Amino acid sequence: MTTLTVLWVRARSLRPGAMMERNFHVHRRAWLIMLTGLLEPLFYLLGLGIGVGALVGEITVGGRSYEYAVFVAPAMLANAAMIAAVTETTFNVFGKLKFAKLYDGIMATPMRPMDIAWGEGLWALVRGLVYVVAFIVVTAAFGMVDSLWAVLAVPAGLLISAAFVGIGLTLSTYFKSWTDFDWVMAIVFVMFFFSGTFAPIETYPTVLQWLVYLSPLYHGIELTRGAMLGFFDPMMIVNAVYLLVVTAVGLSIASRRMSRLLYK
Known about the structure:
By secondary structure, the chain is mainly alpha-helical. The protein contains 12 helices and 2 strands.
């Protein structure tokens, strides 16, 4: 067997892996629908990165000048990773939890709430990986990849997805109705525009800069931008650690919340 097959067999033997396999079989004929979530960041990239970029010209980062589209592309990749995780762990998980009551049936098996949470998280990471790889391929085709180090944007993108997996799963356990998702989209929209996406954070007012530092998306953009532009800063270690902490805290809270709801 190939290495990939061995890893898949081992994953299936674990309870979260069984949950992930269930999602795979449900969505295996709907990959094109899943990929539509990739269109939004691509349209922003083409419209703002290339369109507005023609007016902006070049932008300086780390003492080097880049075309504006090349500067924006890593932020769009980070946004794609965020969208994949948020979509999968909020809308989809909330529907299964509150309306379809899917998890109530799964609880009749050896699966436990933590297994469900981790399984849904793993599937969201698979979706994030698909988005990240597809985005890198498209940006490379447009000539927006400035360094071979761009391959490191793949693990960076997965780390971004992981951070928002924890956040999304936690929010899903608190929401009461579909109208609560208006808040999710509002927060995502604000983070998208104010996380150093279209301009270096140094151009922001000082007070706003400190608020941006709290955004997981900002730290993800810093990681992907460093990888895709081929420059590395010691602060990227801080960015990675911040995302790891957000992931751990989010998954911990989500697991406890899921247990409380499913064991009622």
